[in-house]
Design goal:
Elements lengths: L3 H7 L1 H4 L11 H4 L6 E9 L5 H8 L8 E3 L18 E3 L3 E7 L3 E7 L10 H4 L5 E6 L8 H10 L3 E6 L9 H8 L7 E4 L4 H18 L3
Parallel strand pairs: 1-5, 1-6, 6-7, 7-8
Antiparallel strand pairs: 2-3, 4-5
This protein binds guanosine-5'-diphosphate and magnesium ion.
């Protein structure tokens, strides 16, 4: 997928005085109303649910990560029973970018999962069009705080179950019922490691956010 940056670079020539305008210009370069729209999306969910994995899978830039080795000091705080192989954790946030369809650029901000970093959330979600709440069916309750947060601030969100190998597969409607997610909110089963699957989730959120936010 072409990035907006390289397309924009192609459009520089006419600005430098070429006498052949218009020809290779993309519509959004001549029509100011079609300039790429940059949107901010938050990826939230419990500890170890796959937020960093999702941002890494879709990002076209090297994602900024703030992983830190976990030490024994966090043993009592961070529950590792479902992710025993997890050695690092996100201490501040993940950041990535993905360009969809030439004129839509998504900036992804992954939240830190641990409760002790929640003071950051209000800053992190500012200006976002919506959020993906990741869930793991083995520890569904871990996503309640994120659900509560977005419900209470009125931010559009979708629920994406990151299906881990070896865990029981549930239908989206079972998850909706278990989490009492309202009918108009998309609930989907995905795999945070697969780019296409993660992009489908992001597109579902963009569509849902557009429906929820009248122009
Ligand atoms: N089997 C499997 N492992 C996954 C999946 N998503 C993430 N993981 C692994 O689960 C661990 C936690 O993921 P991470 O993205 O760091 O979680 P975060 O705390 O939400 O950022 C990592 O070791 C990932 O490789 C998945 O869909 N399937
Ligand atoms: Mg992380």
């Amino acid at each position: 997928m072409d990035s907006v940056v390289s397309d924009a670079a192609l459009g520089v020539a006419p600005l430098l005085g070429s006498s052949e305008p218009d020809e290779d210009l993309k519509s959004w370069q001549t029509d100011r109303t079609r300039a790429p729209i940059a949107t901010k999306i938050v990826v939230a969910g419990g500890f170890g649910v796959g937020k960093t994995t999702l941002v890494t899978a879709v990002s076209e830039i090297t994602p900024l990560q703030t992983e830190a080795l976990m030490t024994e000091a966090s043993e009592e705080t961070d529950d590792l029973t479902a992710t025993p192989g997890k050695l690092t954790t996100t201490v501040a946030m993940d950041f990535g970018r993905i360009t969809l369809d030439d004129d839509l650029v998504l900036y992804l901000f992954g939240t830190p999962g641990q409760q002790r970093f929640w003071f950051m959330w209000d800053d992190l979600v500012r200006g976002a069009i919506g959020a993906v709440v990741l869930a793991d069916t083995r520890r569904l309750k871990d996503c309640f705080p994120a659900l509560d947060y977005f419900e209470s601030c009125g931010m559009p969100y979708v629920v994406a179950v990151n299906h881990f190998d070896g865990s029981e597969r549930f239908e989206p409607e079972d998850v909706r019922e278990a989490l009492t997610i309202p009918a108009h909110i998309p609930v989907m089963i995905m795999d945070a490691r697969r780019r296409i699957s993660a992009i489908e989730t992001l597109l579902a959120l963009v569509g849902h956010a557009l429906e929820e936010t009248p122009e």
